[in-house]
Every structure is written in C-alpha cells, then in structure tokens.
Write a structure and sequence with these properties.
Blueprint (H helix, E strand, L loop, with lengths): L1 H9 L7 H17 L3 E5 L7 E6 L9 E7 L15 E3 L2 E3 L3 H18 L6 E7 L10 H9 L3 E4 L14 E5 L1 E10 L3 E2 L10 H13 L9 E9 L5 E2 L2 E10 L2 H12 L9 E10 L6 H16 L6 E4 L5 H6 L4 E2 L6 E2 L7 E3 L2 H17 L3
Length: about 375
C-alpha cells in the first residue's frame, strides 16, 4: 500500500493541469490492472481524464452493485514536492495530496484486492479528475453510475478529530454554492464632481452586509465573501466592483432561500445595477434512514475489527453529495486517517491504512450478502 501510495503522490496532479492529472491517471490505471480491475478511461477535454475500474461480475449478472468514489486531482501546483516531499516520518506519510485523497484510492484498491475474484458484488471504483474544482465534467458520469448502484462508498478522508487508528466516517455534508455579485455604478472625478458618480465599491460594501445577514448559523447556513475587487484609482468614483461568495447549507430548503434572496438584491442607488450569477452546485448530503443503515453496517464491521466507528457531519462537500441527493444510500469518509487537507502538514497515519482497507473490504463483503 505504501509503495502504491508514494507512486501516486509523486505524480503531482493539480486540477488545472490536465496533462499532470492524466499522468496520475496513468499510474492509477496500472495499479488498477494489477489489482485485477477492468479498466475504462473516460477522455475529457476540459479537465483530467476520469477512470472507471470495474471489479467482480458485470452489473447485469450481480445481485448487488456498488459504486466507490474517489478523485485523482489535488489543490497543489506542480513543484510542491520540492517543499513537501514524500516522506515517512513519525508513523505518518507526508506529501501533497496524500490525505486528500490519494490514500483513499489506495485503500479502495487494497480492499478490492483483498476480496479478490470470489466477491459476488459488481463494484465500480470511479476516480474523477476534477473534484477539487467542482466536478463540472464528471457530475453526469457520477450520477449515471450512482443510478445503477445499490449503495455508494466515498473514499474521501476520514472524519477528523476521532480516535485513531480507525477514525470515523461522515454521514452528512453541507451543500456548496459559488456566487458572483457584480456591481456597475457611474464613474466620476472624486474631487471635482463626486456627486455625479455612483460608487460601485460603496454599493458592494452595503450589499455584503445584507448578504451576511442572510446567514443562519443555527441552521448551518453560512455565507462568506472570500474575494472582492473594484475601482481603478483612489481619485475616481468606482464604476465597477465584484465579490465571490461561498455559500454552505445543510438542507435544500436553505439553498432555495439563499438563491432567491441573492437574485432579489436591490441597489440603494437607482443609478447602480447589480448582477448575481452562480448557484448551489453541490446539494447537501443529508442524513437519511438508508444512509443510517449503511453506516450501521460499517460500524458492525469496525467493531469486529476491534474499534468503534464514530460518525459526524462536516462543512466541506464531496462527490457523495451528488449521489445522496439522488436517494442512493451513501457513506463518506471511508478513506485515510490523518490530517491537513489542503494544508502544508498534510499526512496520513501509516498504521491506519491496512485497518481502513479491511473496513472497506468488510463493508463490501457485507453488502454483497443478503441482509
């Protein structure tokens, strides 16, 4: 597992570099073949290719069909290895993308290798190349595979801040929206005739206060204007300004409320126009009875391995959000135990890798048999 993981991490794969992601896909495809997979590569022009690794009997010949989700792209640019080398230190493996989520891919492959040809389930491990940037080219493929599956297992990192070495899983995730507010005002000389201008920057400031007031932290709804820009010079009443707004929700009702509120924003100055674009593009992964039953089975497997399996909800999203929204039982966070997603201290616990592979293998085996 370590040798496979180190090979994947050394193949740097930032989302915005298709050639790099495709090279990582080459590595994963070779690992998949070695594990006994039937390999189908889905070529993509606008992002890294997607990889479909099929195990067990064909879906039409199997009583149980399972989809396992992962991704090959990372947030780290080419050259990060120079500052974050792949190294084993203090019981952990460090490196860019090792935790989010190349270790999850290795865990999934090892689980399927453990089960071998005796497994009766039809299993597809789908590794996409654009998860970190919204899954625009992979969403339709993910949803099509999910509709043909009885359950979805997501290999994103384990629930953090839970007892090692087993760690926990994720049974709920927030939905995510990305919006852009563009403000167009009237330019004027700030000293000679400021009254003839209408400042887009000042209007943006007013709107951001109104937007922040839409938040409902008690319901898990948050809004964050993470990037703003506007104006040209200090002595010019600003004609244009904009903001990028991140939205997180725990329920689709809140997604609808926020989308409607943002499209109904009104400028205080009638000379100023507002334009809002974007949407909640990842629905929330909401806890459900079917999801709970899936978690209960995973917890039974963990207990048989000698460990409890805590469950929790998190603010980040994954491709599991899409599958859960279709009503397919989904469990997330079955990947690596560690810390530091998108951070310089990114690492995975080495002792947890085989334990996690055993958990995933046991869950696949359990789902393959009658309830």
């Amino acid at each position: 597992m370590l040798a496979s993981l180190e090979a994947l991490v050394r193949s740097e794969s930032p989302s915005d570099d298709k050639a790099a992601v495709d090279r990582c896909v080459d590595v994963l495809a070779a690992l998949g073949r070695d594990a006994g997979a039937r390999v189908d590569r889905v070529a993509v022009a606008a992002a890294g290719d997607h990889l479909r690794l099929a195990f067990g009997p064909p879906s039409g010949a199997a009583a149980v069909r399972l989809l396992i989700l992962g991704h090959t792209d990372t947030v780290w640019p080419i050259g990060t290895l120079a500052a974050m080398p792949v190294e084993r230190r203090d019981g952990a493996l460090h490196g860019p993308g090792v935790y989010d989520m190349k270790a999850g891919l290795v865990i999934g492959l090892q689980a399927l290798r453990l089960l071998g040809p005796a497994s009766t389930a039809s299993v597809v491990l789908l590794a996409t190349g654009d998860e970190e940037v919204g899954s625009a080219t992979s969403r339709a493929l993910i949803e099509a595979e999910a509709r043909a599956a009885d359950a979805v297992l997501v290999l994103e990192p384990a629930l953090e801040q839970t007892a090692p070495p087993m760690g926990g899983v994720k049974i709920g995730r927030k939905g995510v929206g990305e919006f852009r507010l563009e403000v167009t005002g009237v330019p004027a000389h700030a000293g000679l005739e400021p009254e003839k201008g209408a400042s887009a920057v000042q209007e943006l400031a007013r709107q951001l206060i109104a937007i922040q007031n839409l938040a409902r932290p008690d319901l898990g709804t948050t809004l964050n204007a993470g990037v703003i820009a506007g104006g040209t010079r200090g002595n010019v009443v600003a004609e244009r300004a904009w903001a990028a707004i991140d939205v997180r929700v725990t329920a689709m009702e809140e997604a609808t409320r926020i989308e409607q509120a943002l499209t109904q924003l009104v400028a205080a100055d009638p000379r100023i126009s507002l334009r809002v674009s974007g949407r909640v593009n990842r629905p929330p992964l909401e806890p459900s009875p079917a999801g709970q039953r899936l978690y209960d089975r995973a917890a039974e497997i963990a207990q048989a391995l000698g460990h409890p399996l805590p469950a929790g909800r998190v603010g980040g999203a994954s491709d599991g959000n899409f599958t859960a929204a279709l009503g397919i039982p989904t469990i997330d966070g079955l990947g690596a135990v560690g810390a530091g997603a998108h951070a310089r201290h990114e690492h995975v616990r080495i002792d947890a890798l085989p334990l996690r592979a055993a958990l995933v293998a046991g869950l696949i085996d359990r789902l393959s048999r009658p309830a």
